[in-house]
Structures are given as structure tokens and as C-alpha cells.
Amino acid sequence: MYEKTLMAGWGDMDFNSHMRNTAYLDKSADLRMMYFADRGFPMSEFMRLKIGPVVMKDEVEYFREFHLLDAVRVTMMLAGLSEDGSRMKLRNDFYREDVLAARVTSTAGWLDLGQRKLVCPPDALLQALRDADRADDFQVLPNSRR
Questions:
Q1: Does residue 144 register a pLDDT over 90?
Q2: For residue 19, what is the DSSP state?
Q3: By CB distance 3.0 to 4.6 Å, which of 20, 34, 84, 137 could disulfide with 14?
């Protein structure tokens, strides 16, 4: 399973002295981009291809708090994928030590940056998605393209 250990930083905190809700979304996006970069798709490759991931829906579930300077272990799994790869559902689990603290599930697609519409990813990028570990509740999603 793909995972990285990050840190709950100063800018991640809210007034209640715990990690703010949008910090979970930021760290989820960071981990996704690290995954793609590790599989041959750094930001420069997305720029060359003129495509990028676009989130259509985020769902955040909270179980435990993170505080300033806590280690945040984040995993990524594939929770859904359309056959043509135009739509995906990515799951990030956040752990404080070995305890599940939060979960972010994002439904996303691939945006053609010129045409501003959803497209199928190139074969190598689709393979990188297919190679990701699958969540127990993985589901086949409908294609975005008609």
C-alpha cells in the first residue's frame, strides 16, 4: 500500500488546536501527486500532457484528532475506477500512530486543460491507477465519456 508520513504543521491547525478540515484535503492531494510522481507522472508530465486531476466530490470522516507536530501517516488506495479510467475514487486513510484518525474519499476525473472537459488518461497513467492497491469496498464506476 502506498503511504507517507507527513507532519501536522502550524498552517494545518485551527482555532480548536487540532488539524483543520481543509488540511486533510490538502494532504490527500499531496499524497496523490506523490503517488503519480513516483510512477512517472510528476507535475511536469501533467503539464506536458495538458491534463490534470480534477476533484468532483470529497468526503471526510473524522475519528481522532491530530495536534501540532503530530506525525500523520497517510495511505492511498483505489476505491473505484471506471473501465476507461476517466473517473476514479481515491481513498486516503490518516493514522495517528496505528489508530485510524480520519478518512478522505475523493471522486475525481482527468481534465483536459485546453478543452476543459473530462478525458481518458493515457495508457501509462491508467496503468498507474490500476496498479494501486484496492480498497475492500472497491467499485467499478461509470465512464465519464460517452
A1: no
A2: B
A3: 20
